[in-house]
Task: structure prediction
Amino acid sequence: MASELIYRGPESLPVPDSYTPKPHKPWFTVIRPLRYLLREQRIVFLFAGIAIASLIFAFLPSSRSGGSNYANTGIYDSYLPSESTQSQVAHRIIYQNRVGFGSFNSGGKIPLGLQRKSLRIVVTGGAGFVGSHLVDRLIARGDSVIVVDNFFTGRKENVMHHFGNPRFELIRHDVVEPLLLEVDQIYHLACPASPVHYKHNPVKTIKTNVVGTLNMLGLAKRVGARFLLTSTSEVYGDPLEHPQKETYWGNVNPIGVRSCYDEGKRTAETLTMDYHRGAEVEVRIARIFNTYGPRMCIDDGRVVSNFVAQALRKEPLTVYGDGKQTRSFQFVSDLVEGLMRLMEGEHVGPFNLGNPGEFTMLELAKVVQETIDPNAQIVHKPNTEDDPHKRKPDISKAKELLGWEPKVALRNGLPMMVQDFRQRIFGDHKEDSGKITTA
Ligand SMILES: NC(=O)c1ccc[n+]([C@@H]2O[C@H](COP(=O)([O-])OP(=O)(O)OC[C@H]3O[C@@H](n4cnc5c(N)ncnc54)[C@H](O)[C@@H]3O)[C@@H](O)[C@H]2O)c1
Result:
């Protein structure tokens, strides 16, 4: 009994003889796979595989996978940027927007297998003349487009050939009111562009330019979208520099009848740059020079549409002043190409987008006579207030940085516009009136 009460220290515990811990050999876990690799020249195959994969990543054009969706746009096709440029940029935008990179990375390669995702794009003023042609191109590229328009000068007919397309939406909305949409890009075109229209309600015009632009910049900031402003050559006013470079600050009357438009656009440019510098919104600014083409408003007071409508109706062509004031005229497909290159490129701008071919009003009247009616009369009327004497873009910046220049000569573009005007004036209406097809 007493023996049971004797204390047994740990030294007296029986040592189990069944378990002997193996000595820890840390090198063993490394040596085993190494031995495996060294056998049968496996390591050679491994390095060869790595080299081949690196070569594929380095040299294969990673952007090809998206393919080009720019199809069936007729005349536009020849002015498209190279496929790789478009899809590479789109990849980068998708990458930036969807993966969350802070800044636009110009050098990054896109991993293979990332398909070009279609973008969701807002076009304000998309039912207007320029906007509707831009929409045609974006839809043809495979993107989803939301047109926001209050139909002040725009027409449903300009976009109704997209009705029924699930990638197209049309919202009747005035940009002076805020709007929330989830989008990747905003093309901000909403603003009446012809003097007849913008002088009709100057307060509304300046409000559209200032409050409308603020709203769209606010939207861009909120959703991280890239924003493109369609400004105008009118920011140069009656220029004292000829031709006009983007560095020229202009000669603008701040209190004249055109100021709601000219100064409105200048303010819109200021707001755009302030949102860029102060709120890090990605912005682009285009300064558009006189543009013509199908779907322009008939009788909107712009010189090309005036002359064409008058010649078709057998009315005399009205030349204001002595007709020696000059303008340059670009065809709308050239402009749309420039806008898209600007949006997809890496430069903020401003960029002049116009055709440097300069015509006096009398020369333009002669081209219209040759195209429509050689017997059309010309009448002179007093010039309007603040009408600039000369206007011609210097487009070297756009040529160098966007690789863009206009391609369509006035004599080639005018017949396409005449055909569209003829249909609309004489009632031969088609659903997709004004859609540019292969010449
Ligand atoms: N066409 C040119 O020669 C030219 C030259 C310089 C600048 N621009 C600029 O290009 C843009 C488009 O011009 P365009 O020739 O197609 O003009 P447009 O009048 O045909 O189109 C403007 C569109 O904006 C819409 N709009 C106007 N105010 C609006 C508002 N408050 N809210 C929503 N929508 C509104 C109109 O309904 C119309 O659809 C304008 O910003 C214009 O200033 C055009």
About this structure: The two ends are 119 Å apart (CA to CA). Residues 124-125, 127-131, 149-154, 174-176, 189-193, 208, 212, 230, 232, 288, 290-291, 297 surround nicotinamide-adenine-dinucleotide (CB under 6 Å). The mean pLDDT is 80.
